[in-house]
């Protein structure tokens, strides 16, 4: 994956919202880490959402979510 695609993916991650459930409409970035861990144990959903949730969990576990916050569109 080249740098332009990586940047685009991170911008998308910072602005993607949860499409259903308890956190419907909340940006993925602001989901509680415990919720992401629960999904990891249960199994992430298929497709782009599951990929983004898994990536976000890794980012949060490593304390790097501050890198995504400037990318959030208000």
Summarize the topology.
Blueprint: H1 3-15, H2 33-42, H3 47-61
Helix pairs in contact: 2-3
Category by helix and strand content: mainly alpha
- SSE ordering: HHH
**Helix content percent band:** 40-55%
Question: What would the average pLDDT be, to the nearest integer?
Answer: 94
Q: What proportion of the residues form beta strands (DSSP E)?
A: under 5%
Q: In total, how many domains does the architecture comprise?
A: 1
Number of helices: 3
Largest sheet: none
Task: Give me the Rg, rounded.
Answer: 12 Å
Q: Determine the oligomeric state from the structure.
A: single chain
Overall shape: it is globular
What is the CA–CA distance across the termini?
28 Å
* Poorly predicted segments: none
Total strands: the figure is 0
Kindly list the characteristics that best describe this protein:
mainly alpha, 74 residues, globular, QSregVF_b, 0% strand
Task: Give a quick precis of the structure.
This protein is mostly helical. The chain contains three helices and no strands. The mean pLDDT is 94.
């Amino acid at each position: 994956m080249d740098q332009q695609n990586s940047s685009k993916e991170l911008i998308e991650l910072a602005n993607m919202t949860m499409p259903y459930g308890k956190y419907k409409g909340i940006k993925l970035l602001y989901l509680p880490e415990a919720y992401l861990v629960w999904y990891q144990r249960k199994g992430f959903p298929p497709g782009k959402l599951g990929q983004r949730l898994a990536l976000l969990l890794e980012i949060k576990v490593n304390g790097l979510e501050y890198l995504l916050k400037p990318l959030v569109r208000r």
